[in-house]
Design brief:
Blueprint: H1 4-28, H2 31-47, H3 58-79, E1 80-84, E2 93-97, H4 105-113, H5 116-123, H6 127-137, H7 143-150, H8 154-185
Antiparallel strand pairs: 1-2
Length: 186
């Protein structure tokens, strides 16, 4: 049954559908997982639509739900991986717990889609800085959208992104010099 709020929700989702699909595809890397992520995101967003206080920030709110849903899914997969025993001659599957020291979901994403030097530089950033720069690079979020998500002024976002980029550059260059020195020593 279509209620005024469900119609409004559908209208808002349609206006940002392409951006949600791009984000899901980038995060998941394949169409099937991206579609699952979109479905889970829309379900969560619809269930909590009444809690979205600012419809102007709706797009950022939904994209944040998508990102958090992705992180939760990767975390669950990391902790409970299914292993086929056919490879070692058994006909069953068992669930094994993966080492808690394994890479975080963000680190897995970074390492799978970027050069090791850039991924290492990003991994050294504080969590909030890493999320902020990923919003710019991966989600192609505007400074205004980031400001809405973090509830800070646009000018603050600009200065933080600038500092983050400077830190990334310094760390990246340091890593590259270290790697060159190691190669020369070999």
């Amino acid at each position: 049954m279509n209620t005024p709020s469900s119609e409004k929700f559908e209208q808002l989702i349609q206006s940002m559908s392409a951006k949600l699909h791009r984000l899901a595809q980038r995060l998941c890397g394949n169409k099937a997982d991206a579609e699952d992520l979109i479905q889970d995101t829309l379900l969560r967003a619809y269930r909590h639509f009444d809690k979205c206080r600012d419809l102007m920030a709706f797009e950022s709110w939904v994209l944040t739900i998508a990102r958090n849903t992705f992180i939760q899914k990767v975390s669950r997969r990391k902790k409970h991986a299914m292993v086929s025993l056919n490879q070692i001659g058994m006909q069953e599957q068992i669930e094994m717990v993966v080492d808690d020291n394994a890479l975080s979901p963000y680190d897995q994403l970074l390492r799978s889609s970027m050069s090791p030097a850039i991924a290492n530089a990003l991994a050294k950033l504080p969590e909030q800085s890493r999320r902020m720069i990923l919003m710019v690079v991966v989600e192609q979020a505007t400074y205004s959208e980031i400001a809405e998500v973090y509830r800070i002024p646009v000018g603050t976002v600009k200065s933080r992104i600038s500092r983050i980029c400077a830190k990334l550059k310094t760390t990246y260059e340091s890593n590259m010099r270290r790697d060159e020195n190691l190669l020369q020593m070999a």
